[in-house]
Amino acid sequence: MQTTYIETQQISFQDFKNQILEDYKLGRISREMSYLGRREVLTGKAKFGIFGDGKELPQLAMAKVFKNGDFRSGYYRDQTFALAIDALTVGSFFAQLYADTSVEREPASAGRQMNGHFATRSLNEDGSWKDLTAQKNISSDISPTAGQMPRLLGLAQASKIYKSVKFDGSEKFSKEGNEVAFGTIGDASTAEGHFWETLNAACALQVPMIVSIWDDGYGISVPTKNQRAKADISEMLSGFQRKEGENQGCEIIQVKAWDYPALLDAYARAEQFARMESVPVVVHVIEVTQPQGHSTSGSHERYKNEDRLAWESQFDGLVKFREWILNYSIEIEGKEEIIASVEELDAIDEEAKKTVKAGQKSAWESYQKTITDLIQSVLPLVENLKGQNTEIENYINQFNKLVSKAKKDVFHLVRRSLLATRGTNSAERNQLMQKYNEIFEVEKDNYSSHLYSQSQWKAENVKEIKPIYSDASEDVDGRVVVRNNFDKIFEKYPETLVFGEDAGNIGDVNQGLEGMQEKYGDVRVADTGIREATILGQGIGMAMRGLRPIAEIQYLDYILYCLQGMSDDLATVQYRTKGGQKSPVIIRTRGHRLEGVWHSGSPMAGILNLSKGILVLVPRNLTKAAGFYNTMLQSDDPSIIVECLNGYRLKEKQPDNLGEFTVPVGKIEVTKEGKDVTLVTYGSTWRIVMEAAEELEKLGISAEVIDVQSLIPFDLTNEIAESVKRTNRLVVIDEDVEGGTSAFILQQILEKQKAFRFLDSDPLTIAANDHRPAYASDGDYFSKPSSDDMVERIYALFNETNPGKYPAIF
């Protein structure tokens, strides 16, 4: 069992003294990083800066109780903490400030995130998991305020799950569930709903979580009193305080940001509650200062009066820390002992400045060398073209006049030179073209890799295993197929769990999990409160710690509550860490073709546009859905699987190889062959398209029906274009609004697959009306594409070209 900070603090005075001076040194280094970082922005070397000055002491205290295996989900000012746990160096801090694209020099994001966004690398280069229990872990930061909170819940809950769940390799992720998840948030961001939803869920679930609130009295320029119902968040949270004997609520500890001994005590107590009792804790750190204001984009002198600024100067944490050190004395065996003299602290201050300056200088030189090397590899090749176009010399002169040069300037020079020499076939131009292709591939990797998994476990690599049927295969309700497949999944993958509203006790609203909680327990098949954002957050955090969560969102319409987390967090995990972290959560939901404004929506275009980085899978029945679950559990890509809401009671033949068969992603299926027109659709609409296709046959129109099956990735082998090549007509049918998913599908087919070359008629899209569906079956009929709509509009295509054979209906 892990020990806590309190239990390990029997040390000698010399060790105590060394720890204090090490903290002071680290605090001073962090402060100098903030100071110099701001100057680098104001002198133009960096674009923007946001720094952690003023928060050094609480972050040093928090770092002392942060152990191997623990996780942090935080906000973008925790540089002192990152330094203290060796997740950041002076060099990597400035490399991030300059947006250096080297993973070695800037391991948090390889230049993809602005400064202050920290992360550790959970993955090896091949995408396999490191031993997360052997390192201190930071889940990659995001800027949206309070957006880090839902993920924190999952990171904390994973520890509770690991107390009872074991599987092959689980020792890489947890040591008996003794890890704590640490969250950090600015005081003003506690006004966000994500903060309250997360804390509420944590108090209900009783997970080992410590949330630090850095309270500097402002949200940028807006004072705390204008942020919430109460200026004091501790007072506001008092109803969350747990009562003796109750297994609900949290502990609340308030402490001053400049009181070093009190901070050590506060975090020691917080760790004791969280690690030993699995109780969530809020550490409200008050009287925090911001010596340089919010960011480099403005001055805090504009909104803080002279008294406030004077107070901040007096109660600066490092100033008070220095005072405390100089005033500290203790008598040991008749001899007065002190921690340090003024001269010793001055020496530390001076050494900190030198350390930071040296780190900044090295980072800048390394960053500049990347650009210098690029220029040296390209410029001679451009100069070789001078004789081929008079403009080339002007381009070179303009380039040389630039005071500072970035990669984009080099590429601009090359591309203008190639444009100027178009139509010329020379060895010199070919050399430049070859070099351009070479450097472009490097930068494409630097800036655009890892939106999706690039490992051997990416979903595209999962081999298709077709369903097996025999004479003994039964016709059952669709929900039985998916239920029995889940049974096989939970048996096969002990790391898999599912949770959501009504998912546990009643086996979900459509009985797709019937009996699963009784069989596998309420840890692996769990009910949640009505709180979609943190259901998703549970999934993200758990998946970051090696579990395979299926986060159930009861209806597709409710995904809107999750879109911020899907878009800003889950979809960007691999990208914003350049393959350093992953979160292969499966989002399970159901939708389409029900009744009512709030249960039959189709926000697919929003999902597609906002969630690039997440696979979007749209099975037409429950057998296909089951196959997608089997596929994705072998993959390390995150995904959303949209089950057909009207398919649970429809009969399907149950495969004999439940839990084994897979549906490949990015693979379409031709469900009806035809020669006159290609009809492309997905999900619940497929059944209606099939009905329409049969009616069209009676009218002399042979329609080929294609089920897309997966929207992201989309038809990886361009089979739809081959169909259009045969039929010469294309219709895309969807129950999203006009210009929604149908527009995406059309763009993929016409632009990417170049199918426009084969069309004899304008491509046609048939979509729902732009309003939400009105209630009941009549509302569905008049709001979304009906079979009648499809038949009439597709028939009209043929009427246009051959009115004699296909006379007008109306």
From TrEMBL:
Transketolase-like pyrimidine-binding domain: residues covered: 476-650
Transmembrane segments: none
Cofactor(s) demanded: thiamine diphosphate
Pfam families assigned to the protein according to its UniProt record, in alphabetical order: E1_dh (PF00676), Transket_pyr (PF02779), Transketolase_C (PF02780)
One Gene Ontology term of the molecular function aspect: oxidoreductase activity, acting on the aldehyde or oxo group of donors, disulfide as acceptor
Keyword Endoplasmic reticulum: no
UniProt KW keywords: Oxidoreductase, Pyruvate, Thiamine pyrophosphate
Role noted for this protein: E1 component of the 2-oxoglutarate dehydrogenase (OGDH) complex which catalyzes the decarboxylation of 2-oxoglutarate, the first step in the conversion of 2-oxoglutarate to succinyl-CoA and CO(2).
Protein name: Pyruvate/2-oxoglutarate/acetoin dehydrogenase complex, dehydrogenase (E1) component
